[in-house]
Amino acid sequence: MSIVGGPATEGRSGGADGPSPGGRRVTRRSRAVHRVLAAAARRGTAVEKEILGLADLVDPGDVCLDVGAEFGLYTHVLADLVGPGGAVHAFEPQRGAHRALRLGVRAAGLTWVHLHRVALGAVPGTAELSVPRRRGLPVHGRAFLTAGACDDGPNREFPRQRLETVAVETLDTAVADLVPGRLALVKADVEGAEGALLDGGAATLADHRPHLLLEIEDRHTRKYGVGADALFARLTGELGYRAHTWSAGWRPVTGIVDTERNYLFSP
């Protein structure tokens, strides 16, 4: 099935004669949001430091995917970097998080950001998404697909969970449906299901060779029966990627680093 969810708002900013006044306002707004998020990342607050390195990976006009977008911190930064001539496709299957993401993208006027309430996995279909709850509130950043999981992993710490039935598609189908040219980058935070994402993206990785910015933590991958070291070895061995972490620049690494959870894999 097609997973095209449509743009957050209709139309594009700008045209053949350059950005319209409205388009300039939108791009100024996206640049302001980018600056705020970058400042927060430099302070080491809730914004991940890796957003500071995205400008090294994408150019204006590029197409990027944000898989597990949650509230859209990466989505907004990528949108500013690729600009109205590019596209960002953000995938967030959770009802609440997707609603917040949609509101933020619409408020920023990012017409080149396209939202999809779909999970990406190994095979298409439907699956249960486990959304843990603490003090009655959903912990969106720790939701995971139960398909292929042998237990709750570190989510055992939460007293309750809610199950949401969500649509699942593969990375290959998403790219075939949505990306007419080259795919520059895939950022994915899927709480341990990175192996399933790769399983469903073999053609994309072979044909496009995008940068991959992945969260890899052993405590999450283990609930799917895969060690973080094995996943790292798959990416750098079988798939031929080079691994880096961010520390005032992308620094090469040869294995999982205890102090890091986000890794850039470049072709």
UniProtKB/TrEMBL annotation:
Keywords in alphabetical order: Methyltransferase, Transferase
Superkingdom of origin: Bacteria
Region span, Disordered: 1-29
GO terms assigned for molecular function: methyltransferase activity
GO process annotations (BP): methylation
InterPro entries assigned: FkbM_mtfrase, SAM-dependent_MTase, SAM-dependent_MTases_sf
Signal sequence segment: none
Residue ranges of every copy of the Methyltransferase FkbM domain listed in the record: 66-241
Biased composition regions of type Gly residues, renumbered to the chain: 12-21
Record PANTHER family: METHYLTRANSFERASE, FKBM FAMILY PROTEIN (PTHR34203), SLL1173 PROTEIN (PTHR34203:SF15)
Name of the molecule in the record: FkbM family methyltransferase
Record lineage: Bacteria, Bacillati, Actinomycetota, Actinomycetes, Pseudonocardiales
